[in-house]
């Protein structure tokens, strides 16, 4: 490969899982990531918003998640997220609710609704105080009973994933997305990358590496995302500085209040002594 390609860059990610010629990879990915939570394995899917390389050359704001529907009508959304921020959980839940609600057209009854499952690959940690790298959310009561099987949200934090011995296809995919930018098939692939699906995934990376048009699209998306990450970082720093300033201001107000109370106490004590 002429250039190493990061599968987490959104145009590459969507080409991997959202292109018609990689539809079998999408099926394999879905079964690997959430298959154990489904009542039956996924045999085939229809990609609702297939990858179109032209959109990434002409539109920096292209929709880059992957949406698909299986033969039972269940809907799957897969999205890559490079940076975490305070309101990301709200965005994740909103996106799920939006996709779920869009199934109903005017006059439709609720029985037409089908399960909607969202999978988020997070390059940056979201749940800092939790060491688990995979988190599954469903609608349940306080006794663990599900309301129905229509909701499923999976968060996979790649930074926390450190398995060196690959034992499942889920682990294989996670390691591919985490370490894919360091892989080079010309130098030889590691043993865990020698499956048919991983070779096919590498072919997609090679396309972005070898074809100048695709590599320019990759570079453009990479630079755009770097700019977005820089802006987000600066916003976070400003927000952090604001919070720290507010804390200092509140601490100063609390100290002043304490001083006022102390003055009042001493005045009261002095008045009492004068009366005596």
Describe this structure in words.
The protein has one domain. It is built from seven helices and six strands; from the N terminus they run ααβαββαβββααα. It has helices spanning 10-18, 23-34, 53-58, 88-101, 169-179, 196-210, 212-275; strands spanning 45-47, 66-70, 75-81, 116-122, 134-137, 151-157. The chain has a six-stranded mixed beta sheet, sandwiched between helices.
Outline the fold blueprint.
Layout: H1 10-18, H2 23-34, E1 45-47, H3 53-58, E2 66-70, E3 75-81, H4 88-101, E4 116-122, E5 134-137, E6 151-157, H5 169-179, H6 196-210, H7 212-275
Parallel strand pairs: 3-4, 4-6
Antiparallel strand pairs: 1-2, 2-3, 5-6
Helix pairs in contact: 2-5, 6-7
Tally of distinct domains: 1
Mean pLDDT reading: 88
Distance between the termini: 94 Å
Q: Order of strands in the sheet with the most strands?
A: 1-2-3-4-6-5
**What is the beta-strand fraction?**
5-15%
What summary fits the major beta sheet? 6 strands, mixed
Q: Which residues sit in consecutive blocks of at least 5 with pLDDT less than 50?
A: none
**Portion of residues within helices:** 40-55%
The strand count comes to: 6
Q: How would you spell out the order of helices and strands?
A: HHEHEEHEEEHHH
Helix/strand/pairing class, anyone? alpha/beta
Q: From the alpha-carbon coordinates, what is the Rg to the nearest angstrom?
A: 26 Å
């Amino acid at each position: 490969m002429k250039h190493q390609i990061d599968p987490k860059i959104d145009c590459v990610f969507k080409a991997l899982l959202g292109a018609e010629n990689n539809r079998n990879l999408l099926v394999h990915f879905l079964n690997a990531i959430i298959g154990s939570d489904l009542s039956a394995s996924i045999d085939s899917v229809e990609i609702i918003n297939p990858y179109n390389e032209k959109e990434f050359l002409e539109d920096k704001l292209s929709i880059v998640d992957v949406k698909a529907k299986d033969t039972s009508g269940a809907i799957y959304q897969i999205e890559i997220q490079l940076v975490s921020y305070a309101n990301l959980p709200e965005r994740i839940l909103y996106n799920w609710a939006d996709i779920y609600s869009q199934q109903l057209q005017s006059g439709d009854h609720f029985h037409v609704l089908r399960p909607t499952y969202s999978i988020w690959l997070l390059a940056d940690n979201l749940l800092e105080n939790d060491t688990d790298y995979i988190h599954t959310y469903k609608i349940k009561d306080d006794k663990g009973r599900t309301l129905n099987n229509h909701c499923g949200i999976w968060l996979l934090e790649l930074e926390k994933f450190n398995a060196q011995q690959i034992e499942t296809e889920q682990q294989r995919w996670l390691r591919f997305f985490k370490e894919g930018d360091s892989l080079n098939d010309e130098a030889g692939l590691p043993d865990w990358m020698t499956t048919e699906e991983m070779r096919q995934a590498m072919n997609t990376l090679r396309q972005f590496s070898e074809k100048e048009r695709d590599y320019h699209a990759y570079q453009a998306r990479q630079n755009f995302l770097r700019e977005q990450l820089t802006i987000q970082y600066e916003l976070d720093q400003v927000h952090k500085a604001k919070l720290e300033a507010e804390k200092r201001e509140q601490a100063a107000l609390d100290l002043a209040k304490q001083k006022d109370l102390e003055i009042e106490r001493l005045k009261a004590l002095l008045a009492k002594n004068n009366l005596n």
